[in-house]
Amino acid sequence: MAVERTLSILKPDATRRNLTGKINAKFEEAGLRIVAQKRLHLSEAQAGAFYAVHKERPFYKDLVAFMTSGPVVAQVLEGENAVAKNREIMGATNPANAAPGTIRKEFAESIEANSVHGSDSAENAATEVAFFFSGIEIVG
Length: 140
Ligand code: CMP
Fold this sequence. Notes:
Bound molecules: adenosine-3',5'-cyclic-monophosphate
Strand order of the largest sheet: 2-3-1-4
Number of domains: 1
CATH class: Alpha Beta
Function: Major role in the synthesis of nucleoside triphosphates other than ATP. The ATP gamma phosphate is transferred to the NDP beta phosphate via a ping-pong mechanism, using a phosphorylated active-site intermediate.
Subunit structure: Homotetramer.
CATH architecture: 2-Layer Sandwich
Keywords: ATP-binding, Cytoplasm, Kinase, Magnesium, Metal-binding, Nucleotide metabolism, Nucleotide-binding, Phosphoprotein, Transferase
Order of helices and strands: EHHEHHEHHEH
Shape: globular
Strand content: 15-25%
Protein name: Nucleoside diphosphate kinase
Helix content: 25-40%
Radius of gyration: 14 Å
Structural class: alpha+beta
Distance between the termini: 18 Å
Family: Belongs to the NDK family.
Number of helices: 7
């Protein structure tokens, strides 16, 4: 298996409840390394651009409103099979379907306020990492 990098976002519901440390512990306990991290308050244009792939979905407007409702923490996670591993650690998008022990099962409030975002493929990970970070900000 190859060492990969994936983009993670701790969402406004997680920063609001001061859960960033507890969530980061889940990544680190599972063997992922946080090789870049920054706290941001996204503008509507930034959140809209990040989620442009969902533009036609009925939840897009609410998603952008939620993602701009408070600070987020954008991160690059690195490790063996990091894209798939992070998705396992996060659990299903809808916390009602998330497995026990996953971040979304333990912390998510709803399908929208689901605490974390993680890239869904290696290709999207590269695009999403580049959206938030320049090469010099990622320290492996
Ligand atoms: P995320 O992995 O950040 O990608 C898109 C987000 O849209 C998703 O997590 C959810 O938080 C949010 N969302 C809101 N409603 C839905 C829905 N019905 N189906 C999928 N994603 C949704």
